[in-house]
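Figure 2 data, in text form.
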Amino acid sequence: MFGKFSRRHFAKLAGASALGVATAPAHAAAPATAGQPASFPQGFVWGTATSSYQIEGAVNEDGRGRSIWDTFSHTPGKIEDGTTGDRANEHYHRYKEDIGLIKQIGAKAYRFSIAWPRVFPDGTGAPNPKGLDFYDRLVDELLKNGIEPFATLYHWDLPQALEDRRGGWRSSETSKAFADYAGHMAARLTDRVKSIFTINEAGRFVTFGYGLGIDAPGLKLPDADVNQVRHHVALAHGLAVQAIRARGRAGTKVGPAENLATCVPAFDTPEHVRAAEIATRELNSGFLGVILEGKYTDGFLQYAGSNAPKFTAEELKIISSPNDFVGLNIYAPQFYIAASDKPPGWKMLPFPASFPHMSSDWLRVGPETIYWAPRLAAKVWNIENIYISENGTSSEDKVSADGQIYDLDRIMYLRNYLRQLQRATSEGVPVRGYFLWSLMDNFEWIYGYEKRFGIFHVDFATQRRTPKLSVDFYRDVVARNAIGV
């Protein structure tokens, strides 16, 4: 199961169920010249990222409620190495140490997620003061160290109580509960937190959690129900945007973070680029597209047929509440696209068996993806502000005899991806910042602790954090605001 289903399927599966615009504004750095480092725009935000269930631990402490991932990870056979997030990185108690790691790399921003069941143990009702206090302490410690907090409200750990009472995302009542939670957190934190991501990677947790049974809550629903779940998640995003604007401080910025279906033209000619634009719009219509356009495309509705979600005009209006930015989680090319003289005007090309990949077999190496994905998204939807909200890779990460971790494969991956990202910014693609996934090794969902994405190694028996060679690499990028030649 674990080798067959992976991130490389996310957009393909979401796109299968989802089946000419303004030029991006130019805030670009000059392109690199021979022998000179490739610089990013002035003020470019360099950060790193984590999520609550993957690092916090302390699942039964200080009034935290149970999440669907607590239940799922304790179900035999669901996690490859048989582990859970019960302890994880003990970040709930070690957050000061971990913020010190961010300071070591010189990053000025940190994208973390808030555990909904830690602050609302039952999903609704009275908030948990101790849970709120933890995020107050976390934010204050970040600011004390000169690190800007970027909060994510939902990174998959839905309160189990909402799944039990309301069917989780199968019900629009969960969308409304999410809006109440979002408004409460905005009122609590936006005196210090200026940027909020609403929902992370609907493209994965909807299809894998409710359609294929691979992620929490482990359901295998019919296509019509999966599409309705996705619609409720989009509605939750729109309601949350409205709640944050109503209850947050003036100037608070908000947007989604999505692992969009990344479409790369087979090669750079006008007809293939145009085909990739069309494919990007159609394959992302089921979530990101409806958020940014306020409608489902005709192609999506035609493909879905009787399985299309039920919705109202008022819901579409809510879903398309204006965003301040869009976060794109970009790891690997999911589709190479070629022009076609047959409808819909584009076709997906098959991957050859020899296509290179990292230590996770789904993570194909396609550095050009981080150039094309934001470029095409900005063009298709006229987006003015984009963050690369996640990018990174797992690595073998063997501890050498001298106690060091020489993760040259990760450095290779990051170097090549960041050069392509610099290419994008030099051409005026409006990418404002980059969050490396991840700060440290953590609980990697269905893979448990076997897949390591961190630039800091974690010995989960002792909880010792050790910098990998990639820490030095990323520190240099951040310090110079440039990727070396």
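Caption note: Residues 7-483 form a domain with the TIM Barrel fold (CATH 3.20.20.80).
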